[in-house]
Amino acid sequence: MKTYKGSCHCGKVQFEMVTDLDKAVECNCSICTRKGVLHHRIPPERFKLIAGQDALSLYQFGDKTAKHWFCKYCGIHPFSNPRAAPAMYSINIRCLDEFDLETANIEIKQFDGRNWEEAIKSFKL
Question: What is the pTM of this model?
Answer without folding.
Answer: 0.90
